[in-house]
Amino acid sequence: MDFATLSETIATGRFGRALSRLVPATAVWDREWDVCCILDGCRLDLMREAAAAGHEALPGPDGVDSLWSVGSQSAEWMDRTFAPAYREEMARTAYVTGNPFSSQSCEHILVTSDEVLPLSEADFGVFHEAWRDDWVDDGISTIPPESLTDAAIAIWRNREELGVDRVLVHYMQPHAPFRSRPEWFFGSADIEHWGQFAGGDDGDDPADEDLDLEDLTAEEREALEAFAEADDDEGSMNDPWLRVRDGDLSFEAVWRAYRDNLEWVVDDVARLLENCDGRVAMTSDHGNALGELGVWSHPPGTPVPALRRVPWVVREGRDLGTCDPALPDAVREGGEGGEAGSQGDGESDEDDVESRLEALGYR
What we know:
Alkaline Phosphatase, subunit A; alpha/beta
């Protein structure tokens, strides 16, 4: 066993999980903010690079501070951020999320408890799972930032009648899939099409009978071949970090696409800044490991600094009224007091959650 493999085994195994709990992490509730933007999977050095380039929503690179996150993966972050100890803070907060882990029990993730997930309307002043209504399967399968920003602005402007005084908005970017390289995520862009290739365990999915290989583009054929050759134990074809590790993608190309996804979401945070009076924070639930201590991507319960040390940026917003979004239907129909949110129904809802987590590389 080489050093990288050994160190990865230690960092992501029992020792790593035990050490991870000793990291002096900071919950977002311990910082001052009115609107807090969680930019999913954002490394500290990526944020500082974007700041150095002069993005209007960011300070200079010296203004990008950091904190140690409470988790190294989204479900772990939710489990610890929304723990029972923070019920008082949560009761006066609106949580707008694009991350489907909000509806998962996550028993399979060893570092999560059985006290928090799945989240419910009763946990927050307002709870809006934007991913249920605003997920797109056009080019890539994800939730773009625009609908989350619209919801955050509308809720902030109506906070008094909704009974909240803070908004926590969980964007999915810069997390993969990347808008600039949709061909890397074939199978995640069209859930129905993906099912034809990843169907039954016995490989006898009837949908395969309708598949004509001659109809595939060169990019689709290449992606299908990569999927067929993939080792399930080695991770998902939708995880670009594992593909960098395996030599399927270059680090430079993935980093450029990752940076573009960050700019995608920060462009929309700029819109939030000009439509909210108040202190707007930007941070992340976790980073992405790029081989540090042999670790790649963002496994839960991992104490590697590249995963746990995340950006912390605070900007002062000013409501210039440049847009006027309506409250999401689910929030408006919930009425005063935050009995808001949107819930699916049974098996079809579970299928949606599974397919969307698969699109993000979690399945």
